[in-house]
Amino acid sequence: MRWKYFVGFLIILGAIGYLVWGGLGKNLVYFITPSEYKANEGKYAGKRIRLGGLVKPGSVRYDPNTLELRFVITDGLAEVPVFHRGTPPALFKENQGVVVEGKFEGETFYGDNLLVKHSETYQAPKEGYTPEDVRRLIEEAK
Amino acid sequence: MEPKRAKQRLDPLTQGLLWVGFLTLAAGLFFALKAPPDVQQGYLVRILYLHVAAAWTGYLAFIVAGVYALLYLVREDPRFDRLSAASAEIGLWLSLLMVLGGMMWARPTWGVYWVWEPRLTSVAVMVAIYAAYFLLRQAIEDPEMRAKAAAGVAILGVINIPITYMSVYWWRSIHQTASIDIINRRVNMAPEMVTALLVNLLAFTLIYLGFLRLKGMLAEMGAREEEQSG
């Protein structure tokens, strides 16, 4: 038995155990939706959570000078106003799926990390359509 | 005296797999560059041809490693142990390539290189299992013990493959579901993109099979030398 390698093996085994029972277990519900939050506000009060949903059209306010980004996240049933400081990722736009990490302070969700979900649908831009039109077509076809 | 080493050439099948594989890879590059950009993310979508091809062949390599491990336990022929280890090693490299491509893709689209969400976590577990596999092989000196212990890990490792694949369907994740969606029988990609992906997938599969035979052969030569010198 070469013990040096065996110790390495045990360390990795421990890491896997931690990922499966510590990490993955916690991350199985990777984000909660605004309506899940509203249904159980007390449980999430003051805790760091991830909130996931769509960016409500017409709600995005971004100030490039102060990097203050405000928008409303919705799951169709409930809505939550979000405040985030930082440049939004390139794919951030209205109706896009997002996951925000942060905390509630009163009614507003203060995000310190903004992730953008993108769909598994990939389409070539069509002539005569703007990318926005094509995206809407894809959304409707679903 | 130096041990007599027969001059060995690659057998025609291995040669053919590697030649055709690399030529197909060149064709795959051509199709990938010819495929149109995506409406939403533009040319970034091209990472997909590498990322998905590496992911699928990585899964394949780990499953094959598990099958050879099972064969070893049944037949106790060291050849199966060598092929199992060879397949696991190629699978590990392919998985690292997949993770690297995925990180390059995640930063400009999601906004981060890495998050501990279900798909990425299960992939991390997968990579860790096969890293552990090779540390265990290094740790055990007795060839028979080593082969048996390694076979156990290779077989258990296969359990994680469907979990990794299905993670985006079973749990909420930031990772999108499959674009060639086997579960819902739908293809969510422009036809030119599907062609580019399939050509690259074929190339990766052929190269994997070629390297599997090559590595199996090298391991056999190594084992023979070990026998002669020991």
**Gap from first CA to last CA of chain B:** 14 Å
Derived structural class of chain B: mainly alpha
CATH class of chain A: Mainly Beta
Q: Strand content of the residues of chain B, in percent? A: under 5%
Instruction: Work out the number of β strands of chain B.
Output: 2
Helix content of chain A: 25-40%
Rg of chain A, alpha carbons: 20 Å
The best one-word shape of chain A is: extended
Give the CATH architecture of chain A.
Beta Barrel
Strands of the widest sheet of chain A, in order across it, are: 1-3-4-6-5
> CATH superfamily of chain A, please?
Nucleic acid-binding proteins
The name of the CATH architecture of chain B is Up-down Bundle
| Whole-number mean pLDDT of chain B | 92
Topology order of chain B in helix (H) and strand (E) letters: HHHHHEEH
Number of separate domains of chain B: 1
Description:
- The complex is a heterodimer of chains A (142) and B (230).
- Chain A has 142 residues and is an alpha+beta fold.
- Chain A has one domain (31-141): OB fold (Dihydrolipoamide Acetyltransferase, E2P), CATH 2.40.50.
- Chain A has 4 helices and 6 strands; from the N terminus they run αααββββββα.
- Chain A has helices at residues 3-27, 34-39, 41-44, 131-141; strands spanning 49-55, 61-63, 68-74, 79-85, 97-105, 108-116.
- In chain A, a hairpin with a 4-residue loop joins β3 and β4 (79-85).
- The radius of gyration of chain A is 20 Å and the shape is extended.
- Chain B has 230 residues and is an all-alpha fold.
- Chain B has one domain (12-225): Four Helix Bundle (Hemerythrin (Met), subunit A) (Up-down Bundle), CATH 1.20.120.
- Chain B contains 6 helices and 2 strands; from the N terminus they run αααααββα.
- Chain B has helices spanning 12-34, 47-75, 78-109, 118-139, 143-170, 191-229; strands at 180-181, 186-187.
- In chain B, α1 packs antiparallel against α6, α3 runs antiparallel to α4 (118-139) and α3 runs parallel beside α5 (143-170).
- The longest helix of chain B is centred in the last third of the chain and has 39 residues, at 191-229.
- Classes of the chains: A alpha+beta (142), B mainly alpha (230).
- At the A-B interface, α1, β6 and α4 of A face α4 of B.
